[in-house]
Amino acid sequence: MDITIKLKSGTSIPNDRLIIAGPCAVESYEQLLMIAKFIKSKGANVLRGGAYKPRTSPYSFQGMKEEGLEVFKSVKKEVGIPIVTELMDARDLDKIYDVADIIQIGSRNMHNFSLLTEVGKQDKPVLLKRGMSATIKEWINAAEYIAVEGNTNIIMCERGIRTYNDYTRNTLDLAAVPIIKKETGLPVIVDPSHGTGIKELVKPMSLASFAAGADGIMVEVHPEPEKALSDGPQSLTFDEFEDVVESLNK
Ligand code: PEP
Ligand code: MN
C-alpha cells in the first residue's frame, strides 16, 4: 500500500517503513540537534519531540513551549528533517503550524472534538494517537472529525490502551493495526514506547508492529535516558535505537 505522507513543503515521505524518533520532550538545542543528526543517520524519516507536554501532574516539566518550537526551527534548518510535534491547545495552532511538518494530536486529546475540527481545517498531515481508553470505533470517529473538515492526510497511531494489566504502562493493541488499515485505508503506525513504558519491550514490539502490517513506528530516543525530563524508562539510548533499526532491516 502507498503510504506516502505528503508534506506542505511539497516534499513527501515515500516510505513503506516510516520511522519517527526523538525525545519525549524538547530539552535543549544542543541535545535535540545531536538526536536529530543521529536518528537521521540511522534512517529515521521524521524527528519527534514535545514542546508542549500533556503531563499527568501539573508539577511535572510541562515542556519548553515557544522556546521549544524555536529549538525545532533551528534544528530543522541545520539537519533538514521533517518534524512532528503535539498540539494541545487550538490557541497554539499557528505557532505549531509554523514549524511542524506533521501535527500530533495526543492520546489525551483524541476526544477533544473542537481541537480535531481545527486541525481538520488546516492543510498539514495530522498524526492522531489513539485515546488511552478509546475503542477502535471512537478512534475512527475522531479521524472522521478531522476528515470531515477537508483534511484526509491522517496517520493513525496505536499507542496502547489502559487495561487491568499493571506490568506495562499501557497494553499495546496490535490487533488494531490490521483493523484500522482495513476500516480506514489510512496509514497506521505504532508507538511501542508509550505502548509499553519499558525500553526493553520497544524492539520486540517494533518488530511485531511491522509483522502486524504497520506502516511505521514512533519511538522515544534520548542520549541519557536516566536524566530525561520525561519518560526516561521507555527511552532508547542511541545504541539501542541503532539496534532496533538494524533488527528491522534484517
Ligand atoms: C507523545 O507521544 O509525546 C505522548 C505524549 O504520547 P501519548 O499522547 O500517546 O500519551
Ligand atoms: Mn513521552
TrEMBL record:
Keywords: Transferase. Its EC number is 2.5.1.54. One of its GO terms (molecular function) is 3-deoxy-7-phosphoheptulonate synthase activity. Transmembrane segments: none annotated. InterPro entries: Aldolase_TIM, Class-I_DAHP_synthase, DAHP1/KDSA, DAHP_syn_2. Residues 14-245 form the DAHP synthetase I/KDSA domain. This is 3-deoxy-7-phosphoheptulonate synthase.
